[in-house]
Write a structure and sequence with these properties.
By secondary structure, the protein is α/β, with parallel strands linked by helices. Helix content is 38%, strand content 26%. The strands form three sheets. An eight-stranded mixed barrel has the order 11-12-14-15-16-17-18-19, surrounded by five helices. A five-stranded antiparallel β-sheet has the order 2-1-5-4-3, with helices on both faces. It has a five-stranded antiparallel β-sheet with strand order 7-6-10-9-8.
């Protein structure tokens, strides 16, 4: 964006720019603001002309300026991060200071800024800190992370150890958030953990304490935190809440792995190799449903491996080892072969590709050969990739996607909306489908911000001629709302859980 947008616009991105509560803007290389949305005037009380008259550093509190400058300069380093985050105090027209969380990136010499006013939130935290009781002090000294959630599962307290273990810089993000949605939303393989299946939720509902020896919480950066935790119900004025005490069991697991290192890693390698040799991989399928007709339009194929005893092993358990040992491309080729055979039988399917396969010419040739061998119609195949899979080399990713689309296949960007570059990839990749990430869908009925975000994604997708798929649909209200918003397709446990897919006949 290179101009202020004060007049009404029909462009959905421009409308989002004007209506956003966050500070959105750009700045020149010498630090002068060049494009601002109306939120700047509302937040600081200055006019746009006043804000543009002086470099942005003039607004920053002198005590914060050195650190802020140092962080911004990282964007000009080699190597440079894609984005930096800063929190500082900025002067308003009445002489007070507003505390702002900034996310900043640079593109062709121009700085792009997103700011969020967290003044009141920080003030509330300061008030709480001043009122800390002796009990709080004891809890703060504990090595275990401690989280207290109210009857709705919203975090009301988290101690310093909990903040540190979950990878947050402060309690601000956690306080008031849904603990399940923030830190316990998925299993180790990345598949959703439904709220009703969450043991912590059951503590509040059933009023019984639990202890879980091994589980996964999720840090702010999306990395898993292996934990052992206990949770107990707590009586509150508005119902039953829960207290969760947890500790990091990474050292325990590391020691276990160290002891087993000589055999464990080799055992995974051998297990995967034998599974490939003896065809012990299977595909599960989850339906993707039209929101308007209710009909299943295709199935997403999900990989599983069978142990020699027949135990179903989810992908998250063995794929990391497959990637380390260079076996993941063989697995992808197996999945592609099965998927194309299924497509040849007349079914529409979606296939996930690993990051190492995106841009791999051998994988492209394999897809082309399998389509030719089976006579499958290419339009029966949708290949899904995550943003991570294309971010390492966008040029290779684009070439890979263009060849797939030239074949007649569709190309879907999975987990759309979770990454910084999501909208960038819309411009550079021949994407036909956008999969709206589960985190924006699961709480959408209660969260107006998620509703607005989903509507914006749908509006942008329609303006670009792309179809939308919402993941994580768990109830009728969510499905109805998605239909009203114009989402084309939906997927989730409410519509169908993954089930073993019959093996297609060999070609």
């Amino acid at each position: 964006m290179t101009r202020d947008m004060d007049s009404p616009s029909t462009d959905p991105i421009e409308r989002l720019f004007v209506l956003a509560h966050d500070l959105l803007g750009t700045a020149s290389p010498d630090g002068y603001l060049t494009c601002l949305n109306p939120a700047w005037e509302k937040t600081f009380g200055w006019t746009k002309e006043q804000l543009k008259a002086e470099p942005l550093r003039k607004l920053i509190h002198p005590d914060d300026l050195e650190e802020a400058t140092k962080r911004v300069r990282l964007l000009l380093g080699d190597p440079a991060p894609a984005v930096v985050a800063i929190e500082d105090r900025c002067r308003a027209s009445d002489g007070s200071y507003r505390r702002i969380e900034w996310t900043i990136t640079v593109d062709e010499g121009e700085y792009h800024l997103i700011g969020r006013d967290v003044t009141e939130r920080r003030a509330a935290e300061d008030d709480k800190a001043r009122a800390t009781s002796l009990t709080d002090a004891i809890v703060e000294s504990a090595d275990e992370g401690i989280v207290v959630a109210d009857s709705e599962g919203l975090v009301t307290y988290v101690n310093s150890a909990g903040i540190r273990l979950l990878g947050h810089g402060s309690a601000a993000v956690l306080l008031g958030s849904d603990f399940h949605a923030t830190a316990h939303h998925s299993r180790v393989d990345g598949s959703p953990l439904l709220v009703e299946d969450c043991p912590i939720t059951k503590v509040r509902r059933l009023g019984r304490s639990i202890h879980v020896q091994e589980d996964i919480f999720w840090r702010e950066d999306g990395s898993p935190l292996p934990v052992s935790f206990s949770s107990a119900p707590i009586d509150l004025v508005d119902g039953t809440g829960s207290v969760v005490a947890f500790h990091d069991i990474s050292p325990l697991l590391a020691e276990r792995e160290r002891v087993r290192a000589d055999f464990g890693e080799v055992a995974w390698f051998e297990e995967i190799r034998l599974a490939l040799a003896h065809r012990r991989f299977v595909l599960y399928a989850q339906p993707i449903v039209s929101t308007t007709t209710g009909e299943t339009v295709r199935h997403e194929l999900l990989l599983r491996m069978l142990s020699p005893t027949g135990r179903v092993i989810e992908a998250g358990e063995f794929l990391p080892a497959a990637e380390r040992f260079g076996l993941v491309n063989q697995i992808d080729r197996w999945v592609i072969t099965r998927a194309v055979e299924i497509a040849a039988s007349g079914r529409d399917v979606a296939v996930n590709l690993s990051a190492s396969s995106v841009g791999n010419d051998e994988i492209l040739v394999h897809i082309e050969r399998e389509i030719a061998r089976t006579g499958a119609k290419a339009e029966k195949l949708v290949f899904e990739v995550t943003e991570t899979a294309v971010m390492n080399d966008l040029q290779d990713g684009r070439r890979f996607a263009e060849r797939l689309v030239a074949l007649g296949c569709a190309f879907a960007l999975d987990d759309f909306g979770t990454g910084y570059g999501s909208f960038t990839y819309l411009r550079h990749l021949p994407i036909t489908h956008l999969k709206i990430d589960v985190q924006f869908v699961q709480e959408m009925v209660q969260d107006e911000a998620d509703q607005r975000l989903v509507q914006t994604i749908v509006s942008i997708a329609k303006s670009l001629g792309k179809k939308t798929i919402a993941e994580g649909v768990e109830d009728q209200k969510t499905l109805d709302m998605l239909r009203d918003f114009g989402v084309d397709f939906a997927q989730g446990y409410f519509l169908g859980r993954p089930e073993a897919f019959p093996k297609p006949p060999s070609g």
